Prior knowledge:
Layout: E1 2-7, H1 11-21, E2 26-31, H2 37-44, E3 48-51, H3 58-68, E4 73-78, E5 93-96, H4 101-146, H5 151-166, E6 170-175, E7 183-191, H6 194-210, E8 227-238, E9 247-255, E10 258-267, H7 273-285, H8 287-340, H9 348-378, E11 387-389, H10 391-408, E12 412-415, E13 424-426, H11 428-444, E14 451-460, H12 471-475, E15 480-488, H13 511-516, H14 522-532, E16 536-542, E17 546-554
Parallel strand pairs: 1-2, 1-3, 3-4, 4-5, 7-8, 12-14
Antiparallel strand pairs: 6-7, 6-10, 9-10, 11-13, 14-15, 15-17, 16-17
The chain binds adenosine-5'-diphosphate (ADP).
The site of adenosine-5'-diphosphate has 21 residues, from helix 11 and helix 14.
Amino acid sequence: MGNILFISDRLEKIQQYSDIFNKKPYNFTAISDENAVLEAAELNSPDVIIFDYKFNNLKKIIKNLKSINDSTAFVLLTQNGEIEQNITKYINSFLTEDLSENLILSTINVNLKTKQSLEQLSATNKNLADSLYRLNVLYSTSSQFAGSLDKEKLVNYMIDGMDKSLSFDLTCTLAFCTDTEPVLLLNSLYELSDELISAIKLRAALNYKSLFEDKTPPFEIDIEKLKVVKTVKYPANRFTFNLFRYDNMFAPISLGDNFFGCIEIFKETPFTSDDATCFQTIAQQVSLPLKSATLYQEIMETNSKLEKLERLKSEFISIVSHELRTPLTAIKNSLDILSSGKCGEINDSGSKFMSMAQRNVQRLSGIINDLLDLSKIEAGKMDYHFTNMNIHSVIEYVRFALSGVAKEKGLNLIAEETANLPEIYADSQRLEQVLTNLVSNAIKFTPEGKNIMIRSHLARAEQLNAPECFKEIVKKLDGEYIVVCVEDQGIGIAEKDLLRAFDKFAQIENSLSRKVGGSGLGLPIAKQLLEAHNGAIWCDSEINKGSRFYFAIPVSKIPAEKILVSN
Ligand code: ADP
């Protein structure tokens, strides 16, 4: 079918063209008044317009006609074959007076066909542009989903994405994930009356129940108490039609066993199958980030519970240790007075028990001091007194302090001095504490007759070699370090236990560690003290062959003369 508008002031021409086109599949209209062209074009929407003569302002008329329909074809019937040059570009085809009926028909048919093809092309283009726009919306919505772990924001992104791609009149989202209670989110184009909201609430609850058929739904809904959050785009207007007659789509928002809510969407004009796909896609897409956000929330809650427990534990340890220290000091003083003989002579077996009691009081006060140190470090309350110093003073102090204990156990404690080591910027008392612990452990875990060596050397971070489990720790070091090594020929530690030895209260399962006892705090304290020095500690060991404990302290970058000494 083709609509043809013919404009001519010659009756015989109107008759000729009417004879040709006044039959199917054409719809022919002829007018003789050039001023009626626009009106006729609006009325008949012609596919082809044939002008019989030259209008004075043909260009202007065609421009106006094109603004009504851009794809209309213009055909000019020339009376003497002469065409004005500047008019040709506006005209699709030309007819001459002497053309046969067949040629006229075929010229007009070609124009009708062309117009039809153009229209199809522009419809396809429009579909393509729509799909592209939708893809863009889906892409930007899914980017928003990927960038958030906030459940409320995720649900809002979902509704926003649906609005952009489907331009709905109303969405009702029953969300179980944004609050502790279920919430009904209403995103509406126009204002909703209270009665309508009540009806929507009931409908949302029924829709939700229908998802679970015979099974019990995961959440209970009390319609009376159901919270409604309303967002209205144009609050000055109200819905005038019955909303429930609008076209609608409904989908759950869930992933496996995780149910986050459901959404219903209404629109006055019918949804297409593309709309349905887009709706389902967005509702499905939001479920995965909602699940991640739920997991994230659970992890954060567990973390904060753990942090609270850790804090309570530290406080408890600190309080108990303080409380134990006072009576322990009193016991120690009493034992000292008794063993000095000031309160009378003690017989041999009495003094044996006395020294046993003194040894155990000593051990107990060691454990309490460790506990207090650890709680101070963890609370960030440990005091450090940094100075430029040489590591040999620390090594010599510890060798001197512990050589007696080592000798008592039949062990050789040897410290090798390396000449010309650069200074380190450190707290000597804390380094003595670290080295004392390492050497005490070496003495504890080495059988009689063996050697314990303390060595030190200068090394660059990349030269440091540590077992696989300490690689990450050593990798963080950078620059030059003084490395101290305590080597024993004792019971050793299995490779699988190396890292665990530095955990709080850790005692590696072996016959000796049970027998010699200990707090299991020496190494974790050493680790934290060294971290406060921007250093590190690690060890290398083999069962029954011995252990090598290393610690590294950065070489001082501050020249000794620049350090302010306070008295
Ligand atoms: P403890 O007070 O129990 O010695 P540490 O934190 O100093 O606590 O050491 C933790 C555990 O590491 C020890 O109980 C022991 O099992 C193991 N360990 C430490 N040093 C050595 C060593 N030189 N040889 C063998 N095992 C060791």
